[in-house]
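Recall the central idea of this unit: under ordinary conditions, the amino acid sequence of a chain determines the structure it adopts. In this exercise we apply that idea directly, starting from the sequence alone.
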Amino acid sequence: MKETACQFAENNRLHGVLTTPSNNNSKLTLVLINAGFLSTQGPFRLYTLLARHLASLNVATLRFDLGGIGNSEMYN
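Accordingly, the structure predicted from this sequence is:
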């Protein structure tokens, strides 16, 4: 499994974490958006644990913070 911090959108204001399987041969990617005011980890680190488990099943996961929450900047 590999976890990579990433930034995207205009001016790189959205932040996330891409979790990929070790073999880098995933045919499916799941997108997890932060829950409420919680960051990419999710409630009780649920998204982190889920992403790592899915990677073991050969599924890539992108966890990211919406604008103004976690590490992402607010949209103007």
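The two ends are 36 Å apart (CA to CA).
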